[in-house]
Amino acid sequence: MVGFGEQLRSARESNGLTQKALAEQLYVTRQTVSRWECSERYPDIITLKKISEILSVSLDDLLSGKEMTNVVEKNPVVENKTINAITSVLYALIAMSVFMKIALDMGLLYIHANERFGGYFPLSVELERIILLIVFSYGIYSAVKDTLTPKRIGIILLIFFGAHLLLDGGIRLYSRIPYYSQMLNHAMDPGGEKYGVVSNNPGSYYIVIIRNVFKIVWTTIIPCALGAIASLGFFIRDGKRKLWVNMLTIASGLIILDTVLRFIKGFRMEKFYTINNSIATYDHAIVNTNDFVADFLLGIALSVLIIYQTFTLYRKRRTAMDLVNEP
User: Fold this and answer.
1) pLDDT, tens digit (0-9, with 9 covering 90-100), for 113-124
2) Kind and range of the H or E run holding 198
3) 3-class state of residue 160 by DSSP
């Protein structure tokens, strides 16, 4: 079967057009048309319709059903130059936010001020940030090179959700097991209040534990599990079901909600420390302010990016399916 590149070249030559002449009518470069004819890239669906009209040839003659799928799966998800530039900026914003957090932690460790500003920094947290910095730097590179295909986006999101699930949610939950055990051991201790609850009321301890576990589950484990599964099914394995879109939307929505709540809590803490006259607590407030502002930017930018890319790819796949099924 003759491929798209050969069909395009044949139709162009039949109409007496050079690559440059066709490119001018499509508002692209001659090199772009050359890549199409060499089957290195495919034009987007809107451009395909314009080519069909200019060359007076049907889409069925230009593309097979499999090639129509390749138009979506082999091309970048975002093909508009302006929006792709915005996507690059968002990836850069995410990478910069993560880098700021790593640099701040390393700076405090270097000057031996980590204990003054909140204690040690868990290795799992720093490892997660390094992974995120690498993967989103790769996202910037792919966006700038205009090669951010669905599979590449899926790999980026799968690593993000997986790292956050294991290194943040999983380890954070596991590390609190000894703490919860101590709480239960003191449940019947008659020595007044411990852990913020009345010690002669064991039910209060269970409520505190359940509340803390539930918070970790709904803010980290659920959205990350949904996001990882949906990223694999939707972006990497070319799933077309609306279920994947809904799962990614829910995961992103939970991340936004958690980000906003953390920002509000951090802002209130910053005001408290600012009012306090202690130099140590004021310096602590400055560090916390930088930290929760970076978290806020990271969470919002990433969630907006996930939702936009998900719905853009879903619309492109639906349009491709409609074109293939046209009589």
Assistant:
1) 545 444 445 677
2) strand 197-198
3) helix
Q: CA torsion 245→251→256→257, rounded to 10°?
A: 120
Query: Is-contact 247 255, C-beta < 8 A?
Result: no
Going by the DSSP 8-state scheme, the letter that residue 169 receives in this structure is I
DSSP class of residue 276 equals S
The answer to whether the beta carbons of residues 19 and 33 sit under 8 Å apart is yes
Are the C-beta atoms of 295 and 127 separated by less than 8 Å?
no
Residue in the block written with tokens 């920094």: 121
User: For the whole prediction, is pTM greater than 0.85?
Assistant: no
Q: What does the domain layout of the chain look like in residue ranges?
A: 4-75, 81-324
* Neighbouring-strand partners of residue 198: 193
> Could you tell me the fold of the domain covering 4-75?
434 Repressor (Amino-terminal Domain) (1.10.260)
Instruction: Compute the half-sphere exposure of residue 325: CA atoms within 13 Å on the CB side of its CA.
Output: 6
Flag the least confident range among 152-156, 162-166, 243-247. Answer: 162-166
pLDDT value at position 158?
A: 95
Cβ atoms within 10 Å of 280's Cβ, excluding its own: 11
Dihedral angle over CA of 298, 304, 309, 310, nearest 10: 110
Lowest mean pLDDT among 101-110, 144-153, 301-310: 101-110
Q: What's the longest Cα–Cα distance across the chain? A: 95
C-alpha distances (whole Å) from 205 to each of 172, 177, 199 are 19, 13, 8
Is the Cβ–Cβ distance between 16 and 9 less than 8 Å? Answer: no
